[in-house]
Every structure is written in structure tokens, then in C-alpha cells.
Amino acid sequence: MATQHHNALTRALAELPGPLPPSGVIHVAIPHTSRFTIVGNHLAQHTELSLVAIGIGVHIQSLPAGSLVGIKALVARFTEGETRIAAALRELEAHGYLHRTRVRLANGRMVTRTVFCNQPGAVLRGGAVVVPPAPAPEVAPSVPEPPPAPAPPPAPDPTSVPEESHPPVRVPPRTAPKPPRRPLPQPRALTPELRRTASAILADLRNHAEELVLSEADVEELVPGVAAWLEREVRPEAIRHALTTDLPKPPKYPAKIVRHRLTVLLPPPLPGAEDLAPAVRRPLAIPLQNCDGCDRAFRSREPGHCRGCRSDLMEAAA
Fold it and tell me: Which domains does the chain have, with CATH numbers?
């Protein structure tokens, strides 16, 4: 089999016109008749894009409209990890090949709309997408002879700016950076009893909501969050109800849903008995004062005379 391939390659090289280069790659170019994609050298030989970004750009350009090209879909397709693929998509976005915006559908759901431009230098002009003018409809001739076929329009020059017959459509701005994700609640002390109970609650979720099937790694990661709830004296039935009620249909990432609810729905600690006791109103204590006249003690907020001395003073004044 290897000999047949070598002989076929030798014959193909012999049919190439002109002398073969002494070194470097030799192209045996056989025209495609189906399943091919035209890729510009500005992408395939881009000097500022990484090899991963170029490969993903070529892959996205070869896919039909409507194909999933998010990070999760590309990670499932290729051996590169999520970090490298996310970085490659950011490279394509920075150089104008990829545009990702968040839009709201008619049903209120937010989705990411991805647009890939095979020639960003020719399509994007100063932040605007140039819409080519619509072709004029052909008018049926009045003479019986068919008119000669019109010559095909010349290919647009990428270096020239075409005339705009319609106002440019502005490219929506890129999505603002998301705020950092809130940390998962942590218990004061993750005891073996708390760990065992929390693991059992998480593993049992699929018996109450079949969509919440968690892997062992997901359970291990989410155990501290459930333990924090248990430490605040929340019953397992209440935790299960909070995690399984009103789930989206279908839940795309069950572990992320559980993590989000454990974080944002965490109840406060139960108040102590002293916090719930009604406030006791203590009687106002008026201090004792010594009378300036008779030196007897009497209650008053300010020093002075007692009631008897005040009466004597009033009678003497009269």
C-alpha cells in the first residue's frame, strides 16, 4: 500500500509544470468538486494570530450557518482546552473576524449571537458594516429577441470604499466584561458529618429533578456550599426544595445552576434567643441631690432646694 502511494505521488510530481523547487513545500493542487471552503491568505497566513486562532477561524468559516461555535462546543470538538480556545476566540474578535453580542429573543431569553466575517478589512469600515446596494430588477424586453446577457459585475476592490446607497448598519458594541463570580459559601468548619450529609443531598438531587445529574467532581466542588446551609440549621428538605424548584427547561449546565442557587439563596444564620427577646423598658432613675438649705436628700435632675425649703423661700418672698 505504501509503495502504491509513493508511485502515485511520483507521477503527480512529474506532471507539475516547471522545475521543482530545491527545498521547501511542493504543492500538488487538485481542484475540489465538493465539500470545500475558500479561505483568504489574510487569515491562513496572518502574522499576528496564533496557530490555534487561525485553525479555529478556518474551522468556523467551513461550518454552515446556525452551527454552534461557542467555547463549550469547540472544546467538545477539539483536543485544546477551554483556556486556549477562549484565548483564540478573543484573538479573532480583536482582529475583526469574530463578533459576539448578547441579544434578547422574543420569548425573553438572552442568547449570544456570533457573526464571522471572512474579510473583515473589506466589510468593516470605521466601525460600520457596509451594506451593498440591492441589484435593480430586470425589465422584460418589449422586442421578441432576448437581450444579450449582461456582463458580470467586476469584483469589488478590497482597498477601495464602495459607494453606499443605504445608511451603514452599526456593529453593536462588544459585551461589557462580566462581574467576577461570587464565591461559593464556605462553612466555618467542614466536619466529616457535614461533608457526608452534603454529599448525600447533592447526589440525591437527580431523584427529585432528573435534570440535575451531577458528576462526582461537581459534587465534591459543591459540598462546601451545602455544608454552609446545613451549618446555618437549614433542613435537608428545604435545601432540596431551593435547588430543584422552577428549573429552566432544559438546564444546560446543572452544576452551574446548583452553584448559583447555593450562593445567591444562602439564608442568614438563625438569630439567638437573646436577639428574639423583647426589649425590657427600665424605669428612669432620678439621681439624689442634697438640699442647699437644709442639707436633706431629695430626688432631682439638677441640684437646688428641696420642696420644703422652696415653700419657705416662696412664703418669705411674699
Answer: 39-130 (1.10.10), 192-264 (no CATH)
